[in-house]
Design a protein that fits this description.
By secondary structure, the chain is an alpha/beta fold. It is built from 17 helices and 28 strands. The strands form seven sheets. It has an eight-stranded mixed beta sheet, with helices on both faces. α11 runs antiparallel to α12 and α13 packs across α15. The model has no long low-confidence stretch (mean pLDDT about 90).
């Protein structure tokens, strides 16, 4: 259809497909003849709309003439898919395979990494929108260890079959149509179509029913994934134009993203490759280019995922959004984006950019502490600045003094960046996080700084007072030791006030080679790996 639109033989209406039935009802989209394909009629005179319920009920209801191809290859699907032959003007016999849709080329490396990130944030019991995008379907491959997933989607594909076969798609936690896979149409192989035939597990509904924002929001932990072409540093998203050309419609992404955002535990996700390989340009831009419409407003965007990491934007300031999006841009373009953000006034002049690598989601570790609480240990990012500042303000004065060796009333912007905006070569920091990804609380922070002359790293810790004595400090220490060993660091050096006996014991643990040097007020502990 792209060529037809470009040549003026067809016109593109930028709107949600879920609104089409309503426009048919009021005559804004007039329907003279409805051309549909159906299954064989049953003994009661009902045919099935088969793999595509979609907008067909609305078209049939308002068309002057309904012409139906009766195809014995069309599966009989369940749900609101039945149509009585009395509603059809003329039946025409055809005997041809139902059109199949199969991705032929293997996914690109960037797609695979994005899919891995998406899979990492989908929780047990989540309800999924599938979509036709390669990335979304690839993400389902990373859900083999999940339980009780469900489907509420405008379209389903072959990607759901392995999840069904392994008992992962149970739908037990759904709030509506428990146990059912709800969809409006299917696009896949004959294997999928055979699975659909007379199978009560599937419920096919009209597109406006499936894509109702209220219905989507009522699902359990709704996850919606939208593939985009470009995102600017404020969070505006272009999904239907590529290099100035109208490339695709908007489907029902606005409804699914809004529904997922209103759903408790829902996850509205935008994903895109960080780079346009053909033009060798960044798909994360300072501002959208001419010919790139803001299909999705910045106010509605939550997750943005590239092959370099996950940015969460909802409720964040422009400065926080710019930092988060630059961190998931391709490293080749980060310095330029950073300079552009400063020129636009999104970032202060004193801010710096250190981290040029992809976020290592594989390094995330969930740790169970001595008091049975659990925390997520992960690498710190520049976006953690405000949460680390909040952690600092939770520390009593005595802890602040033992951490900084002076009375510090507040952390400057430079101090905060020193704790989270690191290069992860000679400067490394970890945080301990509780809560959700949307509302994380940092309850611990640790870092090490490598001295190039000795290849020994100096360490430092902050632990929330409510989490002291739980073993969190030891967990952070062990995580740093493992990381440092992998990078060939010889050992750790900790300079601790002599009165801080807990930290002295922590620094001396984890190594058989420990040397201690006492000064007037401090203890210098060196541990070699």
């Amino acid at each position: 259809m792209r060529a037809a639109v470009k040549q003026g033989q067809a016109e593109y209406v930028p709107m949600s497909i879920a609104r089409v039935p309503g426009l048919m009802a009021i005559g804004r989209i007039p329907v003279d003849v409805a051309l549909i394909q159906v299954s064989l009629p049953d003994e009661f005179g009902y045919v099935s709309l088969g793999v595509s319920v979609d907008v067909i009920p609305a078209a049939v209801a308002h068309a002057r003439v309904v012409l139906a191809e009766v195809n014995p290859a069309m599966p009989r699907t369940m749900g609101d898919s039945a149509l009585h032959i009395s509603q059809i003007t003329q039946l025409v016999w055809v005997d041809s395979p139902v059109i199949e849709f199969v991705h032929q080329a293997p996914p690109q490396e960037a797609m695979t990494q994005i899919a891995r990130y998406i899979g990492s944030i989908i929780e047990d019991g989540a309800t999924l929108q599938i979509g036709l995008g390669r990335i979304t379907n690839e993400a389902l491959k990373h859900l083999a260890d999940r339980q009780d997933l469900a489907i509420h989607s405008d379209v389903i594909t072959d990607a759901i079959i392995p999840l069904l076969e392994h008992g992962i798609l149970t739908g037990r936690r759904k709030t509506q149509q428990v146990g059912k896979i709800v969809t409006s149409f299917a696009m896949g192989s004959r294997r999928l179509y055979d699975l659909l035939d007379r199978n009560p597990l599937f419920s096919f509904q009209p597109i406006d029913v499936v894509c109702s924002t209220a219905t989507i929001a009522a699902q359990h932990r709704m996850v919606s994934v939208t593939q985009a072409f470009a995102v600017d540093l404020t969070g505006q998203v272009c999904v239907d134009q590529l290099r100035g050309d109208f490339y695709s419609g908007v489907a029902a992404q606005a409804e699914f993203l809004e529904g997922a955002s209103l759903c408790p535990g829902g996850k509205p996700i935008i994903c895109l490759s960080s780079e346009d390989v053909e033009t060798q340009s960044s798909n994360i831009r300072a501002i959208l280019l001419p010919g790139e419409g803001a299909t999705l407003p910045r106010t509605s965007v939550h997750y943005v995922i590239t092959e370099f990491g996950i940015a969460y934007l909802f409720g964040k300031s422009i400065r926080e959004r710019a930092v988060a999006l630059i961190e998931v841009a391709h490293p080749r373009f980060r310095a330029e984006l950073f300079a552009q953000a400063q020129e636009l006034g999104y970032l202060p002049r004193g801010h710096t950019l250190q981290n040029m690598r992809a976020y290592p989601v594989e390094d995330e570790v969930t740790v169970h502490l001595k008091d049975q609480r659990q925390v997520l240990l992960r690498c710190a990012t520049s976006s953690d600045g405000e949460a680390i500042r909040m952690l600092f303000h939770r520390l009593p004065e005595s802890d602040v003094y033992t951490r900084f060796f002076r009375n510090v009333r507040q952390l400057s912007a430079k101090d905060v960046q020193r704790l989270c905006n690191l290069n992860f070569e000679t400067e490394v920091a970890f945080v301990a996080v509780t809560g959700t990804r949307e509302q994380p609380q940092i309850v611990g922070q640790s870092c090490y700084f490598v001295d190039a002359t000795t290849n020994i790293a100096e360490t430092a810790f902050m632990v929330h007072p409510d989490w002291q004595g739980s073993g969190l400090g030891s967990a952070l220490q062990q995580r740093m030791v493992k990381h440092a060993k992998q990078r060939g660091v010889r050992g750790f050096l900790a300079e601790i006030l002599q009165a801080n006996t807990k930290m002295i014991r922590l620094a001396q643990s984890g190594s058989a080679q420990v040397s201690t040097e006492l000064t007037r007020d401090t203890t210098r502990i060196t541990t070699l790996f």
